[in-house]
Amino acid sequence: MNGSLQATVVNLLGCAARAADQPVRKTTQGVLWWAEECTKAAANYRAWRRVYPLGFDREVQLAKGEFYNVVRRAKRYNWRDLIDSFTDSESVFRADPWIPADTRKTIELIDQISLEQTRDTTLCTANTSPGSDNITVRMLRAVWHAIGSLVHKLYQGCFTIGHHPKPFREAEVVMLAKPGRRDISSTRAWRPNSLLSCLGKGLEQLIARRLAWASVHFGVLHPQQIGALPKRSAVNLVACLVHDIEEAFARKQVAKLVTLDIQGAFDTVLRNRLILRLREQGWPPNLARWAGSFMQDKSARICYQDIVTDSSPQQCGLPEGSPVSPTLFLLYTEPICRLGN
Question: Residue limits of the Reverse transcriptase domain (predicted)?
Fold first, then answer.
């Protein structure tokens, strides 16, 4: 009976291994960097572990540290000898043929910016409140015939080299009270909104449109991601929700909605992490550089009624009033939507 059970278990495990297509590799060759001193250090570590099975004693920790140091030193010496033996590029691939090639697809964006696009993103917007430079959209419309070509050259240069000018990174933060009865002495009762340069917003709006279009066209964002994207507005989200609820009611079922909220969403974005995310997604280098410049050396001053504070540097976070912040935040949190896939 026991023999039959054992044979059955072995057979099941073999079938599972073959189904997974991951057979156990058998080899008689060890790692190239393993040396005699590694064997001695490993034996010493195992001996102390047998004496102190819990592994909390000082002797065990010292033996463990010595073993790790010996292994690290052996690897370093082995790689140095291997690198010194290289004579040409072919020897590199012969020595390490398992180096994976970069299979990431680079997202190709049009580098050229037309004068019409510059005018559309700068002037064809609502007359929003100006930033610290006090230049409004109405003022830009009045003098566009004289500065239009200069603004176009500025936007083209910033987009090509991946730079966001320092004056565009200075913001005035106004405190807006959240709706409802709230304790105004609490910081959660207020919503900070960054007033940025209207000229800088034109550049941000131009880049935001290209990011949003490419995110949908190249499938960077999840198909069910809605908001700050073309033809995926909050109205579409509400329509989908109403449709699902009506379908549930038609089948005499109960519909439940679970919502999640990221507290202080834009404030949690880290500059280097955002740059890494954009590079992993395959965005052009100039776009990743622009995002890094957009979040670097920012400053803000708080305005409330007649009180204006001095400017202070901001270490992280996306400005709340920027047109490009929602799209950058979607790209920043893109892996979350794919966790279940």
Answer: 157-341
